[in-house]
Design a protein that fits this description.
- The chain is an all-beta fold and 418 residues long.
- The chain has a domain of 105 residues.
- Helices cover 2% and strands 61% of the residues.
- It has one helix and 56 strands.
- The longest helix is centred in the last third of the chain and has 8 residues.
Length: 418
C-alpha cells in the first residue's frame, strides 16, 4: 500500500507493507488510536503519525518523522540524515538512527545506535552507542554504553561498562560494574558502585563511592566516603569523608576530611592534609603533611610535617634534607634525620642525626649525632651515643636503664600490631 506525497489519511489496519511519501499525515484510527501494519512501514521523507504504530520493521529516510503515541516494531532504521520523535514508548529489537532520536517515554530494545543525539526518559537495552549526545531523564539499564560526546542521566544508572569521550553526568548515581571511562569530565550526584574509574580530566563524586581502581588525570573530588583499591591522580584530590583502600599515588595534593586507611602504599608528590587519623604501609610525602596521627611501616618525609598525636613506624622513619617535623616521631627500628632538618621529639631503637640537624628531645637505644647537631631538650639513651664536632646540648645526655613508657616507641609498637 502506498500513500502519495502530501496526503492526509486515516488508517487502522494494513495487511501489507506500507510505503509513505514526503509530507503525509496519518491519523491512527484503529482500537485505542492504533495503526497496525502486518508488514513493514517505509517513510520516504517527513511523515506525521497521530496515535500509536505497530508493525514489523519501521524504516525512514530523508526527513523528520513524528509519532504522537508509541511505536512497536522489530527493527527501527532511520537513515540518510533522517530523524524521528516518538512521544510515548518505543519497543524494538534493534534501533538505528542516523541523526536525532527522541523518545518521550521509555524505550526497550536490544541494541540502540544513534549517530547524532539520543533523548529519552527511561531506557532498557543491552547496548547503546551514540556518536554525539545521549540524554536520559530517568533510569538507564544498559549493559554497554558508548558515547562520543556528552552523556547526561537524570535517574540511576545500572550498567557493566560506560565509555564517554567528553563529559558524563550521572544525576542519581547507581552502579557500573566494570569500567567507567570518560575523556573529559565526570560528575556523579548520588551514591556510586563502580568497578574502575578512568577519567582524563576532572571527576566529581557527590556521595559515597565504592569500587576498585581510580585513575584521574586532573582533579578528583568525593563529597562523601570513598572505598577503593588503587588510586592514581595526576593533580589534586579531595575526599570529604573517610578514604579506605589499598594504595594512593598522587602527583599534587591530597585532602581527606576524616580518616585515611590504606593497606598498602601512599605516595604524594605535594601536600597531604588529613582531618583525622591516617594509616598506611610504605609512605613517601614530597611536600607538606598535616594529620591527627599517622601509623605506617616505613615513611620518607621531605618538606614540612605536622601531627597532633605523632607519627609511628613499625620499621623506619626518614626525614629528608631541610625538612621540618612538628609532633612526635616514633619508630620500632630506626629514625634518620638528614642535614639541616628539624624535628620535635624522636624515639626509636636507633636514631641518626646528620650534620646541622636539630631536635627537641631524643630517646633511643643507640644514638648517632653528626657535626653541629643541636638538642634543645633532653637526650636519653640506653646503650650507646656517638657525637660529632660542636654538638650542642641544652642538658647533658643521660644513659638510663630504660626509656620511660610515655617517651618510648615500645608501647606504640604493641598498640599498632595488636
Amino acid at each position: 500500500m502506498k500513500i502519495r506525497r502530501g496526503d492526509t489519511v486515516n488508517l487502522s489496519n494494513v495487511d501489507e507493507d506500507l510505503e509513505i511519501e514526503d509530507g503525509v499525515r496519518i491519523t491512527c484510527s484503529g482500537d485505542a488510536s492504533t495503526l497496525v501494519v502486518r508488514g513493514d512501514v517505509l517513510c520516504d521523507g517527513g511523515v506525521d503519525f497521530v496515535g500509536d504504530v505497530k508493525c514489523d520493521d519501521f524504516e525512514g529516510m530523508d526527513g523528520s518523522i513524528t509519532i504522537s503515541g508509541s511505536l512497536q516494531c522489530d527493527d527501527l532504521e532511520i537513515k540518510r540524515d533522517a530523524e524521528i520523535e516518538v512521544s510515548k514508548d518505543v519497543h524494538a529489537q534493534d534501533a538505528e538512527v542516523d541523526k536525532i532520536f527522541r523518545v518521550g517515554g521509555k524505550i526497550e530494545a536490544h541494541e540502540i545506535e544513534v549517530g547524532g543525539k539520543f533523548e529519552t526518559t527511561d531506557v532498557k537495552a543491552v547496548s547503546v552507542s551514540v556518536g554525539g549526545v545521549f540524554e536520559a531523564r530517568g533510569e538507564v539499564d544498559v549493559e554497554e554504553i558508548e558515547v562520543g560526546g556528552k552523556l547526561e542521566i537524570g535517574g540511576k544508572i545500572k550498567s557493566r561498562n560506560l565509555s564517554v569521550g567528553g563529559k558524563a553526568r550521572l544525576g542519581a548515581g547507581g552502579s557500573v560494574a566494570d569500567e567507567i571511562e570518560v575523556g573529559g569530565f565526570l560528575d556523579v550526584d548520588g551514591p556510586l558502585e563502580y568497578g574502575t574509574i578512568d577519567v582524563g580530566g576532572t571527576a566529581k563524586l557527590n556521595g559515597m563511592a565504592t569500587g576498585r581502581d581510580i585513575d584521574v588525570g586532573g582533579t578528583f573530588e568525593v563529597w562523601g566516603n570513598l572505598n577503593f583499591k588503587d588510586m592514581d591522580v595526576g593533580g589534586y584530590a579531595h575526599i570529604k569523608g573517610d578514604a579506605i583502600g589499598k594504595s594512593i599515588d598522587l602527583g599534587g595534593r591530597l585532602s581527606v576530611g576524616n580518616a585515611l586507611r590504606l593497606s598498602g602504599s601512599l605516595e604524594i608528590g605535594g601536600q597531604l592534609d588529613i582531618g583525622g587519623e591516617a594509616e598506611a604501609e610504605d609512605v613517601e610525602i614530597g611536600g607538606e603533611f598535616n594529620a591527627s596521627s599517622l601509623k605506617v611501616r616505613n615513611i620518607e618525609l621531605s618538606g614540612a610535617a605536622k601531627t597532633d598525636n605523632g607519627i609511628f613506624a613499625t620499621e623506619d622513619i626518614h626525614v629528608g634534607h631541610r625538612s621540618t617535623v612538628r609532633g612526635w616521631i616514633r619508630a620500632s627500628r630506626e629514625i634518620e634525620i638528614e642535614s639541616r632538618s628539624e624535628v620535635d621529639s624522636a624515639s626509636a631503637r636507633k636514631i641518626v642525626m646528620d650534620d646541622r640537624s636539630r631536635a627537641k628531645n631524643v630517646y633511643g637505644e643507640d644514638v648517632e649525632l653528626g657535626d653541629r647537631v643541636e638538642i634543645t631538650g633532653e637526650l636519653l639513651y640506653t646503650r650507646s651515643i656517638r657525637t660529632g664536632d660542636e654538638v650542642r646540648f641544652a642538658k647533658q645526655p643521660e644513659k638510663v636503664s630504660s626509656i620511660p613508657a610515655e617517651k618510648s616507641w615500645v608501647v606504640f609498637s604493641e598498640t599498632r600490631t595488636s
